[in-house]
Design brief:
This protein has 443 residues and is an alpha+beta fold. It has two domains: 24-62 and 118-288 and 331-441, Outer membrane efflux proteins (OEP), CATH 1.20.1600; 65-116 and 291-327, Outer membrane efflux proteins (OEP), CATH 2.20.200. Helices cover 65% and strands 14% of the residues. The protein has helices at residues 2-18, 27-37, 39-60, 119-186, 192-226, 241-248, 264-285, 334-400, 406-441; strands at residues 24-25, 65-74, 81-84, 95-98, 104-117, 236-237, 290-302, 314-326. Helix 6 crosses helix 9 (406-441).
């Protein structure tokens, strides 16, 4: 028995570990994991299931409906009726008190109802199908937004880490310069201003380094949240910014055709037009008659309590077949006003559709331009970084030989630090702009 329990415990422990979330993610793996576990994506899936249930709920209202009712009555004091006494050979002008029926009554009834015609039902079923399409498109929109935010968070985390690494290198270089300059100053071979300039540079770098260290933790926790992971989950990113830029630089995407009907924003506006169209049909359908049929069967028994099924109990059956026809005749122009309002809403939706078409045409042009600019900026910043590194190296050599001032060295270092940050940000922008273009094109 002990061996069995130990085996079960080990199996449960192994299963628990096998179901733990992974810790290493590439960008594509992070996006795929987020689409399944992101909190917003999970609720979007639930909304889609809810729309499917709502569709069936609407359809079911036009299918047969069966209901049952059971009633038991015990008249503690039965009502009394007065009957002329002459009915019982009594004295004329007088009355005899009479009680009708037994004191206890039990009844059970089952009713079947079926809708035969209702214009609003037909429109309602069509509208639920349109709502289901909207929910599917809304799920697609949510997935796009999740993908975009995860890509941005992944890039920002790498940016923070790269910044820390670069700042560590810069701090080490400045500390070396400061140490050498401090020794020269102590020996009277350098000015105090040179030491102070380097101290300013070092203090600035240390502040930036501390801030970048904090950003690494914050950006990683933000990425964990977007992926549906605990804040302190030990997530490791398997790609670098260089990997992402090489992966996300796709010039052929700039020439990809734009199919507007594939754009999710366009599909959502089309869904709005469908909704307004069915609202108009629903308003018109309220002028149509409705027809329903029903049939019921019941049994009423008269007996002592809880003896309804006794063979000696007096009971009687009843059954009714009927139809309900409702014809709207006059609504004081209320239905007409409702129909006119629905027409106005539909026209507004059509106008919004035209506006969306034009806006999407502009957005795709803007997205292509932004993506092109991001690639060009990245290439330029890469060249600028190489130049800034050479300039800083030359000035450092000159400074060591006494051919450049501390101000000139600080200026070259500041230029280098700016070029480094611009280069890192340009890499992130390439990734983000590519994602935005893909969301619009939806290739």
């Amino acid at each position: 028995m002990r061996i069995t329990l130990a085996g079960l415990a080990l199996a449960a422990l192994t299963l628990g570990y096998s179901q733990e979330a992974p810790t290493r993610f590439s960008l594509d793996e992070a996006v795929a994991y987020a689409l399944e576990h992101n909190y917003t994506a999970i609720n979007a899936n639930r909304d889609l299931v809810d729309a499917q249930k709502q569709k069936w709920e609407t359809i079911a209202t036009g299918l047969p409906q069966i209901s049952a009712a059971v009633s038991y009555q015990d008249q503690l004091k039965q009502p009394v009726s007065l009957i002329p006494a002459e009915f019982f050979d009594g004295e004329p002008g007088t009355f005899v008190p009479v009680v009708f029926g037994p004191p206890r009554t039990t009844s059970a009834t089952a009713t079947l109802r079926q809708q035969i015609f209702d214009g609003s039902y037909i429109v309602g079923v069509q509208a639920t199908q349109a709502f289901l399409r909207y929910s599917q498109n809304n799920k697609e929109k949510t997935d796009q937004e999740v993908r975009k935010t995860v890509v941005e968070a992944y890039g920002n985390t790498l940016l923070a880490r790269e910044s820390v690494a670069i700042l560590q290198k810069n701090i080490a270089t400045v500390e070396k310069n400061l140490y050498e300059t401090q020794k020269l100053y102590e020996n009277g071979l350098a000015e105090e201003e040179s030491v102070e300039q380097l101290q300013i540079t070092l203090a600035t770098l240390q502040n930036q380094y501390n801030n970048s260290e904090r950003l690494v933790e914050i950006t990683l926790q933000m990425l964990n949240t977007l992926m549906g992971l605990p804040l302190e989950h030990p997530t490791e990113l398997t790609q670098t910014l260089d990997d992402l830029v090489a992966q996300q630089t796709r010039f052929e995407l700039l020439e990809s055709p734009f199919q507007m009907e594939n754009n999710v924003d366009y599909k959502l506006v089309q869904n709005l037009n469908e909704q307004r169209y069915y609202e108009l049909k629903l308003a018109k359908s309220r002028a149509l008659p409705t027809l329903n049929a029903f049939i019921n069967y019941g049994r009423t028994g008269f007996s002592d309590p809880f003896s309804y099924f006794d063979d000696q109990t007096q009971s009687f059956e009843s059954s009714i077949l009927g139809f309900d026809l409702s014809i709207p005749i006059f609504s004081s122009l209320g239905r007409s006003a409702s129909t006119q309002r629905a027409k106005i809403a539909l026209e507004k939706a059509k106008t919004q559709l035209k506006e969306t078409e034009q806006q999407l045409e502009l957005q795709v042009k803007r997205a292509r331009t932004d993506y092109t600019l991001a690639i060009e900026t990245y290439q330029t910043s890469k060249q600028n970084l190489a130049l800034a590194e050479r300039i800083e190296t030359k000035n450092e050599i000159k400074y060591g030989e006494g051919l450049a001032t501390s101000f000139e060295l600080r200026q070259a270092q500041t230029q280098l630090y700016t070029a480094q940050q611009e280069y890192l940000q340009a890499m992130v922008n390439v990734v983000n702009r590519k994602t935005e273009l893909e969301n619009i094109l939806n290739p």
